[in-house]
Amino acid sequence: MIKAGIIGGAGYTAGELIRILLNHPEAEIDFVYSTSQPGKPVSTIHQDLAGETEITFTDSINKDADVVFLCLGHGNSKKFLAENHFSENTKIIDLSTDFRMNGDHDFVYGLPEFFKSEILSAKNIANPGCFATAISLAILPLAKSGEIKSDWHVNAVTGATGAGTSLSDTTHFTWRDNNFSSYKSFGHQHLNEIGQSLKMLQPDFSSEVNFIPNRGNFSRGIHATAYTEYNGSLEDAKKLYSEVYSEAPFTHLVEDIHLKQVVNTNKCLLKLEKFGDKLLVTSVIDNLLKGASGQAVQNMNLIFGFPEDAGLKLKASYF
């Protein structure tokens, strides 16, 4: 049994990690660190955990924990690790953007479907972003086979939890309810990591990923559509994607697709369609699970040699 610590314990992703780890067969929660909530039961913030645990938030850390999850705001993980040092045997899994680019050589980019061999021998993991996960799983099979010859056009919608717990003008209920908007068009920060993965798998990739992110009026989930020119048939594409994901326990091709199939699960579901010379890929994930905490535990499982799906056989909330 390994001991896990969580830094930044009051946020959405930390709440999901606690929920998963409480039921993980090979891990136990050693501490949940929060400078804003020390001494309080975690169930006072993560109220779905009432009756599930007596763990309280703490403002101290165990430097010898086996694995530490960083659930901090973007830019704060590097600062935290500079000020707090863990054992050389401690694995770090960061859920922010801080270590996702290749210049941070101590961190492996944790997209298991494509970088599993690197993850298996990694000490530290940079967990992919939620949009990056949904989009990468939709488009990277063509990169792996060297078949991307033109631009990708991506439109994706995320739920309100994608913005985190901090309030802003666009996260208040009165603004979000019965509303829809785009933001950061063609310039979302997750494009950097998507482009990095594309170049790693298809070094001659020189096209664009034209990405329009949107805010939806639902709580959790990402629905992404991506299309590009493709010379093969629909059957060719399905065969390629099926082969790429043949050993991926959470990524599957389907014929019907919508968000309720994946909310509260660690799944990514993909639907392929062909329209003339265009291949359309629809991708759905839960932004807090496959897009964050679930994938982080998936990476933990790989690092420690546990079954990849340990603790992650979660059921969708269909109704």
TrEMBL record:
Protein name: N-acetyl-gamma-glutamyl-phosphate reductase
GO biological process, one term: L-arginine biosynthetic process
Annotated PROSITE patterns: ARGC
Signal peptide location: none
Pathway(s) the chain acts in: Amino-acid biosynthesis; L-arginine biosynthesis; N(2)-acetyl-L-ornithine from L-glutamate: step 3/4
Family (UniProt): Belongs to the NAGSA dehydrogenase family. Type 1 subfamily.
Source species, domain of life: Bacteria
Molecular function via GO: N-acetyl-gamma-glutamyl-phosphate reductase activity; NAD binding; NADP+ binding
UniProt entry tagged with the keyword Cell membrane: no
InterPro entries assigned: AGPR, AGPR_AS, AGPR_dimerisation_dom, AGPR_type-1, NAD(P)-bd_dom_sf, Semialdehyde_DH_NAD-bd
Organism: Christiangramia flava JLT2011
Keywords: Amino-acid biosynthesis, Arginine biosynthesis, Cytoplasm, NADP, Oxidoreductase
SUPFAM superfamilies: Glyceraldehyde-3-phosphate dehydrogenase-like, C-terminal domain (SSF55347), NAD(P)-binding Rossmann-fold domains (SSF51735)
Pfam families named in the record: Semialdhyde_dh, Semialdhyde_dhC_1
Annotated PANTHER family: N-ACETYL-GAMMA-GLUTAMYL-PHOSPHATE REDUCTASE, CHLOROPLASTIC-RELATED, N-ACETYL-GAMMA-GLUTAMYL-PHOSPHATE REDUCTASE, CHLOROPLASTIC-RELATED-RELATED
Entry function: Catalyzes the NADPH-dependent reduction of N-acetyl-5-glutamyl phosphate to yield N-acetyl-L-glutamate 5-semialdehyde.
Residues at the catalytic site: 130
Cellular localization per UniProt: Cytoplasm
SMART domains reported for this sequence: Semialdhyde_dh (SM00859)
EC number, as in UniProt: 1.2.1.38
Catalytic activity: N-acetyl-L-glutamate 5-semialdehyde + phosphate + NADP(+) = N-acetyl-L-glutamyl 5-phosphate + NADPH + H(+)
GO cellular component terms, semicolon-separated: cytoplasm
Enzyme class (EC, first level): oxidoreductase
Chief localisation class: cytoplasm
